[in-house]
TrEMBL record:
One of its GO terms (molecular function) is iron ion binding. InterPro entries: Phytyl_CoA_dOase-like. Keywords: Iron, Metal-binding. The keyword Metal-binding applies. Coiled coil: none annotated. Pfam families: PhyH. It comes from Paenibacillus taihuensis. Transmembrane segments: none annotated. This is Phytanoyl-CoA hydroxylase.
Length: 271
């Protein structure tokens, strides 16, 4: 981690227009390749036990790898990792640092305002020739604020494309209602996921990203990821969710203001 201050990232008028109309914004070089490597190394340390697994987090192995007997939940392997989540931004110093990255805060300041909370973090892997994609869904089905100000930030820690399972979005769907989330059509997706079946007939766009680039999108945006069908490439991503600190929680919390303040200030009775 570097403490050096880089120039503020300025979101242009054209980028804001695209985000409002299409519902997503791609920002290149959000992290450097070296910063991505630090995130990957930290996650691999959690898997092999050399880095502590702090409270609020757990390891999940790729279900298909478990089914084939290639790995077990009791003896995890970074080769077959599916996910680490969901509170590294609160408890792990490296993941917290990158959740509070100045460039992320600069972009979020333009998209949702100056008072920013991080409400969830996930490190998601997709093993080579094995990783199963997540079907179409909306993050605001799971993460609720009042009003709904949830925004996802999907950061590629590898070069990502269609072959190794990049993110796909449905432009314009950010204005949609929250759809019913049902049992996935694909049986391989049923252990962890739910699916918005209506999205299967909609036109999608793949988000092909170089390492360190990111997609920003609101919680109402319909999005999915593909399978990793490559023989020799992982598909690792740091996925974060944020919200306007003015928002009230969609459920009761046991402690006030439980989420990580990234920039600005927090407010009584809010997230």
């Amino acid at each position: 981690m570097s403490a050096s201050q880089s120039p503020a990232y300025v979101v242009t008028d054209n980028q804001l227009k695209h985000y409002k109309e299409q519902g997503f914004l791609i920002v290149h070089r959000l992290y450097t390749p070296e910063e991505c490597d630090e995130i990957i190394a930290r996650a691999e340390g959690m898997v092999d036990g050399t880095v502590p697994m702090y409270k609020g987090n757990a390891l999940y192995m790729e279900p298909e790898a478990v089914e084939r007997g290639l790995v077990t939940e009791e003896k995890p392997s970074s080769e077959y990792l599916f996910k680490i989540g969901h509170e590294m931004h609160l408890t792990d110093p490296v993941f917290r640092y990158y959740a509070m990255h100045e460039k992320i805060a600069d972009v979020l300041n333009a998209l949702i305002g100056p008072d920013i909370k991080c409400i969830q973090s996930m490190y998601i892997d997709k093993p080579r020739n094995l990783g199963i994609g997540q079907p179409y869904h909306q993050d605001s089905h799971y993460l609720k604020t009042v009003p709904d100000t949830v925004i996802g930030v999907w950061i590629a820690c590898d070069d990502v494309d269609v072959a190794n399972g990049c993110l796909h979005v449905i432009p314009g769907s950010q204005g949609s209602k929250i759809y019913p989330h049902d049992v996935p059509v694909d049986v391989l997706q049923r252990k962890y996921f739910q699916e918005v079946h209506a999205a299967r007939t909609m036109s999608e766009v793949p988000c092909i990203l170089p390492k360190g680039s990111a997609v920003f999108f609101p919680g109402t945006m319909l999005h999915r990821s593909g399978n990793n069908v490559t023989e020799d490439r992982q598909r690792r991503a740091y996925v974060l969710h944020y919200a306007d600190a003015h928002s009230e929680p969609g459920r009761a919390y046991s402690v006030p203001n439980p989420h990580l303040l990234v920039r600005g200030r927090q407010y009584p009775g809010c997230i």
